Amino acid sequence: MNLAGSVVLVTGGAGGLGEATVRRVAAAGASVVIADLADDRAEKLAAELGPGARYVRTDVTDEAGVAQAVEEAKKLGTFRYAVVAHGGFGVAEKVVGRDGSPAGLAGFTKTVDLYLTGTFNVLRIAAAAIAESEPDVDGQRGAIVATASIAAFEGQIGQIAYAAAKAGVVGMTLVAARDLGSLGIRAVTVAPGTMRTPIMESVGDEALARFAANIPNPRRLGRPEEYAALVQHILENPYLNGETIRLDGAQRFGPR
Ligand SMILES: NC(=O)c1ccc[n+]([C@@H]2O[C@H](COP(=O)([O-])OP(=O)(O)OC[C@H]3O[C@@H](n4cnc5c(N)ncnc54)[C@H](O)[C@@H]3O)[C@@H](O)[C@H]2O)c1
């Protein structure tokens, strides 16, 4: 399927992996809806990309907000693709703390709400809208790409909430592909390793060098452009479906 002439909705499109995706699909000729909460960055990016790009302030956990972003995507042209790439809150807490008290429930719930429920919220509303578009000669209407993490498979100490949410995203992928198969909509997940996004850069050079030392090859953090290139390929390759693809330079997280 060709991106040119289609509309792509990207959650978290104003920063990090989402922004790289927005830039990549726009360069490939797609129109794009930036669904994010960072007004300044999102408006600047939309203005830079021109009339084919639109910012819709969207909290992925909010039903009405996501529905509105999807409505904007339908107005821009043939809505075929959604990429779920938002970041945000993630609690870091061990199951039992040093003082012997159990981890809080609120942080766990909030993390799962953002990453897992937020992904499902976008998946379900976007899929229903993509299903309204005309299929191509191969019966294809579009695709939805979600973003997990290698923490879904080897979560580190303190990452129980994040790992659970991301494992949930991995678990949804095949079911979504099966559920949406009759509609000609594919579902694929990317599980990045350690990517050099602004959030990651904020940990400082020393920590970044430590992260890089654990990545076999290339011995560096991943580039957001490498994530965006994979997403473009997934969107355009109709035989990729129901799978989670690691993008990690062969990195495997240890316990910490
Ligand atoms: N950066 C990495 O190394 C890495 C590694 C593995 C997985 N991931 C995953 O990739 C995704 C993107 O990571 P990132 O580093 O680009 O994230 P990020 O923290 O830079 O956030 C991306 C965007 O999401 C937006 N956002 C935050 N809360 C939102 C909400 N409720 N609704 C809509 N948008 C919201 C932010 O404003 C931001 O512009 C995340 O799901 C993250 O877990 C990232």
Walk me through this protein's architecture.
- The structure is a single chain.
- This protein has a seven-stranded parallel β-sheet, sandwiched between helices.
- The protein has helices spanning 16-27, 39-49, 63-76, 105-130, 160-180, 198-201, 205-213, 224-236, and strands at 6-11, 31-36, 53-57, 78-84, 142-147, 185-192, 244-247.
- 43% of the residues lie in helices and 16% in strands.
- The protein has one domain: NAD(P)-binding Rossmann-like Domain (Rossmann fold, 3-Layer(aba) Sandwich).
- It is of the alpha/beta class and 256 residues long.
- Nicotinamide-adenine-dinucleotide binds next to helix 1, helix 4 and helix 6.
Strand residue percentage = 15-25%
Portion in helices: 40-55%
* CATH fold-level name: Rossmann fold
If you compute it from the alpha carbons, what radius of gyration comes out, rounded to the nearest whole angstrom?
Answer: 18 Å
> CATH homologous superfamily name?
NAD(P)-binding Rossmann-like Domain
